[in-house]
Write a structure and sequence with these properties.
Chain A is mostly beta strands. Chain A is 0% helix and 47% strand. The radius of gyration of chain A is 13 Å and the shape is globular. By secondary structure, chain B is mainly beta. The chains are: A mainly beta, B mainly beta.
Chain lengths: 108, 112
């Protein structure tokens, strides 16, 4: 079965601290993985995808097929990073399977 | 700007009522999706459509139906609403060959 696991419902850090939002997936094929973000009172939007291997707003995520993980990292958190973050798997046919989400709270 | 819109944005209804949520897009995308979001459960796919003549069930289609009236319009219906259908509903679109999905602002539905 295709599944995405985000073990933390809430991650609370101070401004300037490193952040790592965990994501593990189960899928037997070659996955395509995404991180979506939902800021307060805004719609869900794509943050980054593994195939582009880019850094967006200081966030990076590396696909580790051995550990079936796609953790989202940022070395220095900012208050404006506070949001709900969803890891998502696209097993094929453009259907997304979402994790349950992690709320990131960055305090001053 | 090309956009994905949803109406209504908020709706309170009673058990047993028929409800329709509408989604329109000006992005010119062929593919459209309906999700529901529940606290602690994330987003779950209800139905999706890859073109006007294509309708597919998602993970949690029971109790829901959809209609793809045109490329730009995809409606979600609850034939007889029940309280556990209280949730935030999102419509999304994507373009063929591109895997990014674009989401609407959501409809908050409360079934009393």
């Amino acid at each position: 079965a295709q599944r995405v696991t985000q073990p933390e419902k809430l991650l609370s850090v101070f401004k300037g601290a490193p952040v790592e939002l965990k994501c593990n997936y189960s899928y037997s094929g070659s996955p395509e993985l995404f991180w979506y973000v939902q800021y307060s009172r805004q719609r869900l939007q794509l943050l980054l995808r593994h195939i582009s291997r880019e850094s967006i707003k200081g966030f990076t995520a590396d696909l580790n097929k051995g550990e079936t993980s796609f953790h989202l990292k940022k070395p220095f958190a900012q208050e404006e990073d506070s949001a709900m973050y969803y890891c998502a798997l696209m097993p094929g046919f453009q259907k997304l399977v979402f994790g349950t989400g992690t709320r990131l709270l960055v305090s001053p | 700007d090309a956009d994905v819109t949803q109406t209504p944005r908020n709706r309170i209804t009673k058990t047993g009522k028929r409800i329709m949520l509408e989604c329109s897009q000006t992005k010119g995308h062929d593919r459209m999706y309906w999700y529901r979001q529940d606290p602690g459960l994330g987003l779950r796919l209800i139905y999706y459509s890859f073109d006007v003549k294509d309708i597919n069930k998602g993970e949690i289609s029971d109790g829901y139906s959809v209609s793809r009236q045109a490329q730009a319009k995809f409606s979600l219906s609850l034939e007889s609403a029940i309280p556990n259908q209280t949730a935030l509903y999102f419509c999304a679109t994507s373009d063929i060959g591109r895997n990014e999905q674009f989401f609407g602002p959501g409809t908050r539905l409360t079934v009393l």
